[in-house]
Amino acid sequence: MSTATVANDDVIAQLGATTEIDLLRERIGAWLEGVDGELREPLGWALAGTPKHFRPLTLFACHRALLDSAASESVELAFAVELMHNMSLVVDDVLDGSDERRGIPTVETKFGRLTALMASGYLVADAFDSVADDDFAVRHLSELLRRLGAAECLQWRLRRHPLGVEDWLRIAGEDTGSMFEVCAVLGGRSEQLRRYGHHLGVLYHGCDDVGDQRGLEALGGGGEEDIRDGILTLPAALAIRDPEIRQLFLVDDDDEQRLTALADAQRAQLDDAEDVLDGVADSARAEAAQFACHPEPLLALVDQVRQLSRR
Question: Does the pLDDT value for residue 19 go beyond 60?
Fold first, then answer.
């Protein structure tokens, strides 16, 4: 077992979700045995590596915070969310031209673009099929898929634009925030914790941005690729307040000197970025305290996510 897997399992245990995550892993394993043999290997590869499971952890925590029943009742919802999430990762890697995801080659790198795209469609189909009898879940997974598609287009349309932190908050809120929002709604079977999920997702997105620039294990994308593609990460939004850095950010080329200068400028903003993330974490805590019957699992989850940019 890898060090990363042990660390992930330690976090899961601290959040009191070991039983639920074990059931989720069993559900994924059983599903893989039944998928079409033509795509079994790439689908298994898409869910391999060392996932941190923060989206299902959000769903389980919101279940505990609002409902008087075992969170294990939400495993099927978590399964659907995991399929949808991994679909988005496969597509992201195709768009970004990424070579690795979770420490292993991406699905496209290992199996080719056609297989990666067909596998992503398979994941969406089976996500919906798994909750076909749950109108509430179907409605919110549909919301999620629409928002993820629009968010990806928004993020790429705004590449190399001289925008600021408020713009970053909007992009992060749709890109990652939408996934965590829907997890919160599904877990609590209500809209009560939607804003909590939103803030938690923005926090995760920002910790990913900062962690990439610190050279930590990536939570999602890659720092070098974001700089190359002109993606508005949180450190970038802070760095381009400097007019000289802004001009470098607007250029579309692979000049090594330019990319190095951008990377250095973004790393110089990491302390300010951490301050922004502290504010987002406080907003998530406030939502949990105000709207949850049992806020403890939600507060513990915020604390764990907040540490991701520092590990």
Answer: yes
